[in-house]
Design goal:
heterodimer; A: 411 residues; mainly alpha; 19 helices; elongated; B: 123 residues; alpha+beta; four-stranded antiparallel sheet; 3 helices; 26% helix
Chain lengths: 411, 123
């Protein structure tokens, strides 16, 4: 029975912790109160069956448990001092949707504390909002559980020392929180997708939890096209998880992936979300990136890819985010349209900005290979190796160097 | 008579289950689909998560176009997730088949169909 109930607890956790954090103005108290309520639910629900509104039940029970803890706890004085007025326990019913929306956004925003580095923000969101264990988070970040434990404790201290405002945010403040939180979720996915080092290229838990949080944002902010597009973008990327690495753990480039392995259900859902986002209007960065990913997903084979469309999307993205990396991607699309000579020429403009960016050198190497300059190809790939690629990337690059060396000796 | 077996549950709970439990649920659906296929035509649908939905609210003013909104979705509450429809002898037979997909995360409703278009209406 407990597996089924645990799944319900996991589903309710972000909302419950968010509402309880508003009530107690303290994350630890909220977490402990929720844990108490779940424990009680295990006994009561197993006997009487689950209630029709599990969230309301858990919140009412957790509120009482939290008040009990506070009465006994030494933390009480410190926490009560954070309340401006007399401490008001919240009413028993579930908060209304608007309040709940701001509660969850606030909790996620608290995790994005500006004094925390990005990875600690992600770690604390996984611990507090999602409810992953320290061991699970540690394995996601490829560190020892003890190290992760210390990082989370430190991060919580920083958060408590500089609390976020609990008043209902202004529309502008809400918008700012939403973009900060969306970026954190995007980076959580990226962290799982491509470890910056180490053997585990894909750490699916991080990707799956990022998708879950992104889905939660869409539920809470249904009229925000950018959040629907972010979910679409993550799903489109996630759809390729089974195709992006071969049996030997070598990274497979998009063009070489077996597209029948792409997850059709993910792609279908993302397509629906993107249509919805585009209907809402306002072409932000996530909509454009999702549209690019969708253009790849639509192509049954690399040759069917609509590169002109993709190039125009990158041009639009560059207008919003004029960064060298966006430009690099635009040039990659141009290479497909106008050929490698054009692209190599365009790449020269990025040589300084992206001197230490290994994807710049990897792309250059590929183009040099296309024009048959094997010596320059090998040199460019060797630069990639010097820029700490991940193990699966390294395997792919080493193979390409060997291929070019063979071509060179055959000449 | 045609009966619909409709499935209600909280979106996201299935995804939060451990793999073995997910397999357990899917085994039930596989068995039901095999059994229904063996006895004739049937229809089944699984809906995408409600986040992909757009809603048409009736116009508040007479003659106005319906209002298209992007939510809100009551996703913490039970939600319509999908359904099966097939021809059954009576409600008891329909219930017997519905039991094949019963699980702690879903509430099932077995309800006679008043009218159905498409393949299963041709009988």
């Amino acid at each position: 029975m407990s597996d089924w109930l645990e799944a319900t607890f996991a589903q309710q956790r972000p909302r419950a912790i968010a509402a309880l954090t508003r009530v107690f103005r303290d994350i630890d108290t909220a977490e402990e109160a929720f844990a108490d309520a779940c424990l009680k639910a295990l006994t009561v629900w197993s006997k009487d069956g689950a209630p029709r509104d599990p969230l309301a039940w858990l919140l009412a029970t957790a509120r009482n448990a939290g008040l009990d803890q506070l009465r006994k706890s030494q933390r009480r004085a410190a926490i009560l001092s954070r309340h401006n007025e007399e401490f008001q326990p919240m009413p028993a019913e579930t908060p209304d949707p608007d309040e709940m929306r701001d509660d969850v956004l606030r909790l996620l925003f608290i995790c994005c504390h500006p004094e925390l580095d990005r990875r600690d923000q992600i770690a604390i969101a996984l611990r507090v909002v999602v409810g992953l264990s320290v061991e699970e988070i540690a394995s996601g970040f490829l560190v020892k559980p003890k190290t992760m434990e210390q990082r989370i404790t430190r991060a919580k201290k920083k958060i408590a020392s500089n609390p976020v405002a609990f008043e209902t945010p202004s529309p502008a403040e809400r918008g700012a929180r939403l973009s900060e939180v969306s970026l954190m979720i995007y980076l959580m996915f990226s962290e799982g997708w491509s470890a910056s080092a180490g053997p585990a290229q894909m750490r699916m838990t991080l990707c799956e939890e990022a998708i879950r949080l992104s889905r939660l944002l869409v539920v809470l902010f249904p009229a925000m096209g950018e959040q629907a597009a972010l979910l679409a973008l993550l799903l489109l990327q996630h759809a390729r998880r089974r195709a992006r690495m071969d049996a030997d753990g070598k990274l497979v480039a998009l063009d070489d992936q077996d597209r029948t392995l792409w997850d059709r259900a993910n792609i279908a859902e993302a397509t629906a979300l993107l249509q919805k986002a585009e209907r809402i209007g306002h072409r932000g960065a996530y909509i454009i990136q999702a549209a690019i990913a969708a253009a790849h997903a639509r192509a049954g084979s690399p040759t069917e890819t609509d590169w002109a469309l993709i190039e125009s999307h990158y041009a639009a993205l560059y207008a919003l985010q004029p960064t060298p990396v966006v430009r690099l991607n635009q040039i990659a699309a141009q290479a497909k349209l106008y050929g490698p000579h054009h692209a190599l020429h365009a790449l020269e403009g990025l040589a300084d900005d992206l001197a230490t960016y290994r994807w710049y050198h990897a792309m250059r190497a590929g183009l040099l290979q296309d024009i048959g300059d094997h010596k320059a190809t090998i040199a460019a790939f060797e630069t990639v190796l010097s820029l700490s690629p991940t193990t699966p990337e390294r395997a792919a690059v080493v193979e390409k160097i060997d291929l070019s060396k063979k071509e060179l000796s055959d000449m | 008579m045609i009966y619909a077996i409709t499935i209600y549950g909280e979106p996201g709970v299935f995804e939060a289950l451990p793999k073995e439990r997910q397999d357990e649920v899917m085994t039930g659906h596989g068995a039901l689909q095999e059994a229904l296929k063996a006895r004739g035509e049937f229809v089944s649908m699984k809906l995408m998560p409600p986040t992909s939905a757009v809603m048409l609210e009736p116009a508040k003013i007479e003659g106005a176009a319906p209002l298209i909104t992007d939510g809100p979705f009551a996703d913490t509450k039970e939600n319509f997730l999908g359904f099966y429809a097939a021809d059954f002898k009576d409600i008891d037979e329909a219930l017997k088949y519905a039991k094949m997909i019963s699980s702690p995360i879903a509430r099932l409703e077995v309800r006679p169909v008043a009218w159905a278009g498409g393949a299963i209406s041709s009988k």
